[in-house]
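User: Can you help me understand a structure? I only have the sequence.
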Amino acid sequence: MGVRLMVVDDHRLLAEALASALKLRGHRVLASAAPAAGAADLVIARAPEVCLLGTAAPAEPGAFDPVAKIKRERPQVAVVVLGPVPSPRGIAAAFAAGASGYVRHDERIEGVERAILKARAGESAVAPGLLQEAFEELLNPAAQPDDEAQRLLGVLTPREVEVLVRVADGEDTRVIASGMHIAPSTARTHVQRVLMKLGVGSRLEAAALAARTGLLDRAAGPGA
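Assistant: Let's start by predicting it. Here is the structure, written out as tokens:
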């Protein structure tokens, strides 16, 4: 049976892509985008079974205030936070505010769906990998803070970064090839490698992930 849910995020492209994917899997999506400031009020008004609530900065003060507000007004709504790799404090803050789960925004749709179903069933929905990363960081407090954009840039070659920027600009394979002075087959190979390294299944998902993490801004900065 499909879940009555909402996808609330101020990155419209990501929210709409995720909402469409969940609709195709039989779920009833009530809304797909909203500014962060109005997220809680929108969820409270619609009262879904589960809310996927996006956050770009889980470490920022007040990042999970919308979660706390939703749980105060609609305690029956299960909130699953969708965001970048959190620090242990980020995970703790999300659950302290009342979240039922935390899902990385580059998780595959199957993982997102599992989290939704677990949250609706009243279970905690956190990927074992996230918990493992959290414990490792707690055991190694000297480690540098997570930086998702920098991590992603680290797995891409300079040429693949350029391809990603062009994909995010909406260029098709032919235009990418022309702009980079390479064969279309080579451009297609670069695009496939970018998708594989980012762990996404489509150009739309790659563009959304790049925008969400700030990777595009980093790529355009000095030394990119």
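Now, to help you interpret it: Strands lie at 4-8, 28-29, 50-54, 78-83, 101-104, 125-126. The radius of gyration is 18 Å. Let me know which part you'd like to focus on.
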